């Protein structure tokens, strides 16, 4: 049985609140626009700033934006610009962030397949969603091939 969740009545988890519970206000112009538009605005202002850092991997806004643009172009060249599910198969690496942003730029929606999932579960997700494309890295390429 599925249980609906009314997000309007859902309380925020107190553990993820700022320590002093202070609200942070933003000018209306700062919060309007898509995620991509907001990201690109930040990337233009701070191209050399650190956008993503995970363990030893570090990407600047400029590098992340360029990488996401290349991913978006590659996906649109292969699948056009219409909306369809794209599977993302990555571990916890900066590649995943570039792929997510690239999917946003390409106008695609995506779902993640954790490489740690049992093979049966990963195959079910790939089959059930009818994703025509699995975006992955060289580390998980053979796993992605086995899901088709």
Q: How would you describe what is shown here?
A:
This protein has 148 residues and is of the alpha/beta class. It has a single domain (34-146), classed as Rossmann fold, CATH 3.40.50.980. 43% of the residues lie in helices and 14% in strands. It contains 6 helices and 5 strands. The protein has helices at 28-31, 35-45, 61-79, 94-106, 119-129, 141-146, and strands at residues 50-54, 57-60, 85-89, 109-112, 134-136. The strands form 2 sheets. A 3-stranded parallel sheet has the order 4-3-5, covered by helices on one side. Strands 1-2 form a two-stranded antiparallel sheet. Helix 3 (61-79) packs across helix 4. The longest helix has 19 residues, at 61-79.
Provide a brief overview of the structure.
This protein is an alpha/beta fold and 148 residues long. Helix content is 43%, strand content 14%.
What attributes characterize this protein structure?
alpha/beta; Rossmann fold; 148 residues; 14% strand; 43% helix; 6 helices; 3-stranded parallel β-sheet
> Which stretches are low in confidence, meaning pLDDT under 50 for 5 or more residues running?
none
Mean pLDDT: 83
Report the biggest beta sheet as strand number plus sense, adding barrel if it closes: 3 strands, parallel
Estimate what percentage of residues fall within beta strands: 5-15%
Number of domains: 1
Q: Structural class of the secondary structure composition?
A: alpha/beta
Strand order of the largest sheet: 4-3-5
| Total helical segments | 6
Beta-strand segment tally: 5
Output the CATH class name: Alpha Beta
Question: Based on the structure given, which CATH architecture is correct?
Answer: 3-Layer(aba) Sandwich
Helix content: 40-55%
Secondary-structure element pattern, one letter each: HHEEHEHEHEH
At the fold tier of CATH, the topology name is Rossmann fold
Query: N-to-C terminal Cα separation, in Å?
Result: 30 Å
> What is the overall shape?
globular
Gyration radius over CA: 18 Å
């Amino acid at each position: 049985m599925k249980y609906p969740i009314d997000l309007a009545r859902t309380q925020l988890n107190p553990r993820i609140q700022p320590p002093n519970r202070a609200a942070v206000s933003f000018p209306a112009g700062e919060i309007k626009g898509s995620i991509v538009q907001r990201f690109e605005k930040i990337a233009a202002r701070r191209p050399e700033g650190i956008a993503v850092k995970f363990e030893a991997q570090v990407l600047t806004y400029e590098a992340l934006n360029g990488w996401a643009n290349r991913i978006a172009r590659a996906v649109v060249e292969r699948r056009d610009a219409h909306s369809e599910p794209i599977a993302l198969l990555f571990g916890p690496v900066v590649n995943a962030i570039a792929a997510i942003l690239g999917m946003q730029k390409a106008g695609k929606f995506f779902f993640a397949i954790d490489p740690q999932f049992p093979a049966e579960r990963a195959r079910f997700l790939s089959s059930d969603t009818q994703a025509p494309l699995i975006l992955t890295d060289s580390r998980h390429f053979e796993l992605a091939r086995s899901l088709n």
